[in-house]
Every structure is written in structure tokens, then in C-alpha cells.
Protein 1
Amino acid sequence: MPALKHADALVYSSHQVVLSDISYTSFTYPGDQEALAALKAIPGAGPLLAWLDANFSEQITHLNNNEQMVRVNANNYGSLFTLVERCCAILSCKVPDVYITTNPEMNAYTSGQRRTCIVLHSALVEALTPDELCFVIGHEIGHIKAAHGLYRQLGDMLIRYWDILSSVVPIPGVGLLRIPLLLAYWEWYRRAEFTCDRAGLLCVQDAAPGLSALAQLSGKVAGYEDERNIEESIAQTEAHKEVNKLVLLVSILENSSTTHPFIPLRLKALKEYAHSDAYRQILAGQYDREPKALAAPATDATDGGTDATAVAAGAADAPAAKPLLAAGADTVDKWKASATGFFKR
């Protein structure tokens, strides 16, 4: 076996803090847990989706991944697999299945609940340094720990089957609630991305590679990397102050269905978190811990993923939520009260 690459990656440093048994609640972005709890409050939705995921969609995904992608393990792209193992050890997560797919788009994603997987696009692996790549891997591990995939699926089903749902729910005017529901769902989706950027930072424990990785997702020009200025990108978050309220409102409406926050906003939020007391406390060992029975073995790759009890624990950990319809209405009310609130994370 060839020697492993990336031996000098930050995650292998003797100074790196391993966050044993850390719970995702320790690093959630404000509003993420509340919005997710609102989705979880739909009666029976969680167990139903967990069953469908385990007995159908996970198996389809597993088969498709193995037929169409390259599976990464200790004997195949071992250096990349070792990076994933180390990131999982730092964030106290079972090692998921890992795949590489040939794709020119810089992207990575995760799926599954019991048998989780991380898919890395070849362009991403080729473009990023090991430390930047570990930030992205840590971000995806954050999604796994928070069981985001299950509730993204729930939101997608609400969007896809809304007409059927509204026709059978015996509530007058339920059809009028579609927009508030969607606004609440998309708002949570974006906040979940901020949460997972924090997970990526906790993995590498250095803001520089995280900021650099995010900056490249918004625009990378080969040969000009030395001229990229992250502070200038962060300054773009002030653009909303340069337009009138009508333009701002139209912009909010046009972008209300985006699933990811704009990169300048993510850069700003990550930098602020890196300088926060909350971040320093976690590295000092002061954080929420998962119950011992639910804490994932850091290097167990045998079954790869978050089990059903961990998903249930996530629901139990979440704060009491308002019904989803109320959450959607609250979102609309907040936007009415302050059009600029959408841009101020």
C-alpha cells in the first residue's frame, strides 16, 4: 500500500482537540433547532420517513452509489478515507460510506439515516487543500449528526405532494398556508447550512481553511488564487444598504426558495463564530454531550451512519416547537416587520 498523503493536515495535529461524544446541539446556529423542531412536530412524519428511508430510499441510494461511483475505503483512495476517519473521530461520528463521483461541479453531499454516506465530487477533491477538504467533510458530518437529511426529505415531500395534502386535511383555507410553510422550510434549510459550517470549523479548528473553502465555492479562478480577498467578499453582505426597500423586498421574494445561504453571508457567519466565546468553550471541553448509549464510536465503519435511536434522541433534544403552521406564519410576520432581517444572520 502506498504511503498515506496529507500527513501534515491540521486534523492530524497533536494539538487538535477530539470532541468526544459531542452533541450537534452544541454548535447549532440560532433558529436551526427551533425550525427543525417545527418540522419534527408533524405527527408521525419522523417515524414514517425513517422507515421509508431505511427500507427503500437508503437501499436505492446504496445500490446507485456502488454502481455509478467509486467507493472510498482503506484500500481505495486510502488517504482520503483516512481523512474522513480522522474527521469523524474529532466530531464523534460513525464513519459513513464514502464515494467519489466524476463531476466538474465543486460539491459534496450526504444522505441516509442508518446507512449514511458522503459523496465528494472529483472537482472539489482536486481543487481543495487537505485542510479545506476536511472543512467540507466536517460540514457533511454535521448534517449526519443533526439528522438533517430526514427532515429535508420531509420538506421535499410537503412541496411535492402539497395539493394532495391540502385536499385531505379538513381545515378551511389550508391551501393559503402553502407559502408560509415553504418559507419556514427554506429558512430552516438555510440555517442548517450555517450549523454545518460550524461543524466544519470544529473539525479543522482553524478558520482560514474554512473561509478559503467557502470562498472557492462562490467563484474560483485558476491562477488568481493569490489575489482572492475574503474580507472583500464579506463586505458584499452590506449591499442591501445600497438599494431601496422595494428592490430589497423583490430580492427577498426572488431568493426565498434558495436552499443555501449566499456565500458572503456564510463567510461572515463563520468568521464571527470563529471569534466567539461559544466556539472557544467547545474547544475547552465545555459542550453538550450525547448520552453514552447513543454516542457513536468514532472509528466504527461497520455499519456507517446514524441509527434510529440517535434520530429519536435528536428529536428529544430539540426545544419544544410551535406547530409547523404557526412557524410558517411567524416567518412571514418577521419578514413583514423587517425586510432587511433576511440578510442579517
Protein 2
Amino acid sequence: MSTAAPTQWKTLPAPDSPAAWIERAAEVAAILATDAAARDKAGATPYTEVQLLKDSGLVTLLGPAEHGGGGQDWTTAYRVIREVAKADGSIGQLLGYHYLWNWAARLVGTREQWEHVEAEAVRHTWFFGGAVNPRDSDVVVTEDGDDLVFTGAKTFSTGSRVSDVTVLEGVLEGTDRHIFAIVPSDSPGLTFHDDWDNIGQRLTESGGVTLDGVRTPWASAAGYVDKEFRPRVYNTLNVPTIQLVFISFYLGIAAGALETAATYTRTRTRSWLHGGYDKAVDEPYVIDTYGDLTAKLWAVEALADAVAAEGQKLHDAPDEVTEQARGEFEVRVAAAKARATDAALEVTSRIFEVTGARATASAEGLDRFWRNVRTHTLHDPVAYKRREVGRHVLTGELPEPTWYS
């Protein structure tokens, strides 16, 4: 991977508008694209890729401007994730999860906590990982004086092996209260396992983690004051926010697949010998397929952008978020998630119809787009997202806030 561009960024001013940040993300994507297929095949831990995100400034996009961060909002963050994912779905996911876990302090914590976390995150260019797989309830948190001690394991811990800090989650012993805390990723007792070997999103470092007595002060327990949690509706926005992260890199992967396939079709695909056309780009079925897939992708992108803008209004006034507003937003996110899943799967599988048999060669790496989408869209069943929408339409029911809704 070239390092010339990151060196150049050090002499340039930071982007100062949403358009400029998206352009910076496109520059990052151009670097990632040069060897994306080879890196996917190698499956090496993406230390260099994460450093690229740091050098470009993308990791501090959501950070407060007064501390040197980008000062941008979620509508820009989603577009940046989409742009990076065009070149590399794994790195798009890592960046998106980083944004969510960075923002988690603001979602769950007290003002004093999130102001401290966000200032430190910008100052030290922290990259965030998370050991917060909600289906694993086997991390127990115990008290030891002024400390909390996390013990147990999580099956998935996306990004943690390449992170500076990790968000932990566990249940306080003898209660049903969940506790989130941010700890250094090199904390004693925190062991990340090199066991992520799935067909897609191979560079996300989503393997398991063991917590063997990981200690952190009680004061770091997000949202707790005097050992009591102070709930608010805004706390529950973690699910629709991260689902929009998912949508963003699904759409980015799909867009990258279309762009890569179109270049291949223009330059290498041969017309069918019995079709009567000299060039593949003149084949009616090829033209129709690209038109169909592009129209579907553009439609979902427009929906995703609209829903992101609706969500930003909630982020802008966190203390005013009502259960009704939160529920209606989740329904809209669920609809976008369902359509993004279908569109991304269709685009990434059908590109082979218009690139040809030679495009299936391993060296081309076109299969990585489908493998990446197929792997992550299994995160939670899309049928349950459609159910949220359908029940709301028929009965007015709003989704109950859970780890997945």
C-alpha cells in the first residue's frame, strides 16, 4: 500500500466541510483500491490500513472542533463510511464501528464522561474497538473497592486487535444492569484471539476476546453516577445508529462492485459471438443490467441519506428524544436496512452476468464484494427488520428497544 498520500496530508489543512471530508475519504479509498483484492486474500491484520485512517484524519471526523476534531455530524460520517467501503468493505466496517464506539460515550455516558472521552480521543487519535456482542451474556462485572472487574468472554470483538481503546460490556454481578466502560486495548487480562476466519469482511479482526479480570475505575462506567445508572431515551439510539453504519458500508460495497465491474466490462469483457455486437458495452442485456442495478442502488442511497438526516435531528437534541420519535426513527432505519441488504446482495452477485466467465478468476477478486455483503448481512435477520416496518404500518406498533431493534 502506498504511503505517499498520507505524507502529503500532513502538509495540507484538514477538510472543513462535508464535501471536503467525503473527498478525503475518496482519496483514502483510492489508496485502498490499489491492492484491495490482494489484501483480502492475504487476510493480514490491517495495522497499515488503520494507520491510513488516522493519517487522513478520518478517525477524528466526529470529534469536537475545539479539540482539533472534524466537527462533523452523522450524515457526513455515513457518507464517509460508504466512500471507504467502495474500495474495501472491511475497512469501511472498521471505520463505521469506530465511529459508533467513539460516539457511545455520548449515547450512554454523562456529559463529564463524554466530553473527557471525546477530547482524549482526538488528542491521541484513538481508534476504537468493541467487545460488545449482545448475544454473549457471559461477561460478569464485579466490584472491588473503587474498581470494576470484567471477567468472561465474547465471541466477536470487531476491530479490537487494531484498536487503541476497547469498549467493554458486562452485567453487574447479582443484578440485571449492564455496564459499559472504555479501557486501553492493552489492558492486563484483555486477550484478543486470532480466530476470525470467515468468508467475508476478512480484515475486520472480528475474532473472540477473553476478559480475565480486566480492571477499570467505577468512574468509567458510562452513564453511572454514584454507582446508579441515569437512563434517558437517547441511550437507546445505539441500535438505529449502528444499523445505519451497516447500511452505509453495504451500499459502499455495492457501489464499489458496480464501479469495478463497469471498468472491467468497458475494458475486458467480450461481446457474445452470436449477439451481433462488436463491444460488450453495446449488448442490450448488459446495458439493461447496469441500468437496473444502478437505479436500485441510487434509490436505496437516497432513502439512506433521508433517514440519516432524520436521525441527525435526534442527535442534535438528545435530551428531547421521545420514545415515539425514537421508535419512528427505528422503523425508518429498518426499512432502509431491508432495502440496502437486498440491493447489495443483488448487485454483488449479478455483476458476473455482465463481466463474463473470465471475471471469476481468483486474481480479479470480484467475489470479495459478494462475500463481504453476504457475511455481514447475516448479523441479524433482515426478516425481523421487515416485521418492524410491517407491524408499524398495520397496527402503529413501535419497535421495543432491544440490542437489535
Protein 3
Amino acid sequence: MTTTAPAPIFDHLLRMTDHRGTFEHACFAEPRPEHGYCTDDMSRVLVVATRQPHADWDVHRLASVAVRFLNEAQDLTGACRNRMDSSGRWADEPTLEDCWGRCIWGLGTAAAHSKVAWVRQSAIVQFERAARARSPWPRAMAFAVLGAAELLTVAPELRAAHDLVTDYAASVAEPNANPSWPWPEARLTYANAVLAEAMIAAGVALDTKPLWQRGLDLLEWLLGHEAADGHLSPTPAGGRGPDDVRPAFDQQPTEVATLADACARAAAIDPRQIWPDGVRAAAAWFQGANDAGQLMWDPETGGGFDGLHADGVNRNQGAESTLAVLSTLQQAQHFSAVPQ
């Protein structure tokens, strides 16, 4: 038996994007410009656009729009604004929250993988500016480390990236020695897999096996905890604790995409079948292998549905959900048509 993941389809994302950026929200498939844009989404746009193999002109244009948006989002200190209104005015002040970390993730990915020279060059300049800062927020730092690790694969001498990874590695807390709940937090919250993925990425970048092995161990536990009855049952928007009833909703597509990214990274250093299986399970979640048996994307346009509820699907196709589909299917392409 073989499995073949659908190819990513960029039609809906392109429809959601104008000259400034990608609109954050949609009403069903219709973009809602009045809600504006956000750095979190534009960072994800830069990731999926620059790691798409054999990208066409339209996808390269997405990367160009994204890298310009992130440049405008950055303060001279490296901190980032997150929200821009529909007229192009920033609606918040620069911070070192998740938008900062995701910005660095996008820039590092673009610098490592974009086929467009000016996008690579601009991404490096912006990366070095943002990477001077450090965030107190664990997920912000974890996303930033992913970008730094990507950049180090093509520029191992880049001091800003190396220092960011080194500082992150020094900040990782020791394991909690609780075999029933080894997670470093009392509850799973959001983008959980990025914490494990960052440990793997930093461990590989620094050639520190205990760190990457800890990331693998945590990710293996998380993957088992996020599965039920042969499919993924991800942490809902309200989080999940050790004794919470399952399944639970509202399930967000971005949780599935984060898990797929982490499993793909794990597969690069650990040959066990668990990691390709994890990526394929993430792709299958969008195709209906989930707690409600519902399709979570539009296979005609590539739009992703915004949430899985106990009583059905939120069929709005916002940027975050659409990018989650694209990201997951990109990862699944690497593991398609593999014997089971």
C-alpha cells in the first residue's frame, strides 16, 4: 500500500494577497480586507513560498510581498509590529512576542531557500537586525531558532544566527522527570510541537546530541498524545491538560501544521518510521482523518478551513488555516508514495 499526499495549491492564498500582504481573514472563500494583515501570517507566507520546489512566478511574488512586509514590520531594535490595517497603517507597537519569532523563522527560511537573489539578500539583512534581540517568550524563541538553524545550513559562519541558537540552547530547562507528563508546561497550549522542534534544530546546529535527543523524546511523546483511534486529535484552542476529556474542540489547523514541520525535521536525523507516519497523519487530518471525519480544506483552491468543531467545520478560509494546509502538504510531499 502507498500513500500520496495532494500537492499544495496556492490559488486561494494568491486570491487573499494584494500588493501589501495577505489578508488575515475570509468569509468562506471571500477575503475580508477590512480586517487587515498580520506579521504572523506574512512570516508563514515567506516560509511556504520560499521552500516550495519549482515555484512559479506567482509564488515568487508572494515571497517578495512577504519580505517587504516583514521589513516594514521591524523596528530598528529588531522588535516587530504584528497588525497592519487595510490602509497600510500599523495598529500596534513593536514587541518581542510570537510575531518577532515567526518573523525570524520566515527570514531565515527565505535566506536559506529562496531562488530569488534580492529576497535572500534582504532576508539576511533583516534577520541580522531582528536576531540582536531576545524574547522572554518560549515559543517566540523557538520559532526564531528555527529560522536561525535554517540560515546556518547555508551560512554557518553567520554570527547572529549562531549566537541566537547558542543562547536558546543555554536557556532550555532540564527535563521534569515525570514520565506520565514530560512536557515542560503544565498544559499543552498552542504551537506545541515547535518547542520540541526547536530543541532538535538547535541540537543539530550545535552538534549537541543530548539536546536534539531531548527534542525527539518530547516530540515522540507529543505525537502519541495527539493521536486517538488511528488519527490525529490535536490540542484544542483552549489547551489540554493531563486529565482533560478527549476528543476536544475547537481544533486549529495550525496545530497540525506545526506537528508536521516538527516530524519532518525529526525524520532528517532519526530513521524511525514514526516521523514520516506523523507527517502523513497530519496531511490525512486535512483530508478527513480527524475526530469529525470532515474535510478540512478545499482541494480545488487550496483554501484551509478555520477550525474543526464537534458539530462541524468552520468553513471560513483565513490565511492562517490556508497556510497550515500548504505547509503540511509541502512536508507530506517528501514522504508520499512510500510503502506502508
Protein 4
Amino acid sequence: MKLIGSLTSPYVRKVRVVMAEKKLDYEFILEDVWAEDTKIQIHNPLGKVPCLLMDDNGSLFDSRVIVEYLDTLSPVGRLIPQTGRDRAATKCWEAIADGVLDAATSIYIENNRRAPESRSQQWVDRQHKKIAGALESMDNSLGDQAFCMGINFGLADVAVGCALGYLDLRFPELNWRSQYGNLQRLDEKLQTRPSFVATAPPKP
């Protein structure tokens, strides 16, 4: 398999962490989707990463779709419950963590990819409110549990860890640790895992 992505994309990182946890072999192909000569749309018509190229030349895109597929490839380190309420709860954790990423990447694009005269502070403020609300909800839901779903590490923790890592990368001024102690405790635990260490984004 080949994974097309970037070193700073948190969605790509989520897939890379899952592949590391599942001990899956793949080739990592760097791609700048903002470059004029990007070829990403050959494999993903939406022009986004991550994109997974499979051995039969088929492709999968969207991190949620990719990690769902990857978890079926090996029984090693099952990350998503197969059925029932725990599965739905895991996907909800992933959804709220991805919501943080969606808001954070929107702010970054607004402030760095749009012309200054076209930027909307009202839009940016709206995205910050989403981030704050999601962090508070996740912190409360986590409580004193070891991991998002209780005692076992899973996809929920991967998604949350990647979201928190992206906030550290792009918005260190948020200082979320001072407000969300439960998430801080989880993050400290996740950052010791080899899968997170190996996929840490380069510092600006």
C-alpha cells in the first residue's frame, strides 16, 4: 500500500498512527496539495490528503474511511469495536475530534491562504468557539478514565491525540492544557506511544 499525505496534516497523522499501531507496511508519498503541479486529484477527486493507494491500484480517501478499512486488515491491535454501542461511541469520539480539526484547519487556511482583505474575523471566532466547546465536552466525557473508551486504547484516543497535537502545532497560544486537565493527562500518555512519537509533525 501507498499513503499519499503531508507531514503536518493531522488527518494524515491519524492514518499513520493507525498503521503503526496495526503494524502495517506501506510507502509514504509526500504531496503538497496546495502546489500548482499537485497530482492528488488523479487519486482523490476532492484534491485532499490522506489518500490510500491499494495493491490493486484502487484508492481510498477521507481519514475516517481509511482507518475503518485498515482496522479490518489485521486482528492485531483492534482499534474499533465491531458492533454495538461501543462502536458508535468510538465513532462519536472520532467525529468530535475531527470537528476540532475541521475548525482548526479552517482558521489556519483563513489566516494563511486567503488574502488579508478577504479574511473574516467573525468566521475565525466562530471556529474558535467550536474548538472550545469540543474540548470541554471531550474533557468532561473523559473524566478520570485511562482512555476515551475506558481501560483500552483505541481509535477514539488516536483521533483525540491527533487533534490535540495539531492545536499544539498551529495554535500554541491556546494553552488548552491549563483548562482541560483530563485531556492533558491523556495526551501525556499518548505522546509516549511509539506510533505518536514516530508521526509527530515537524516543528515550525
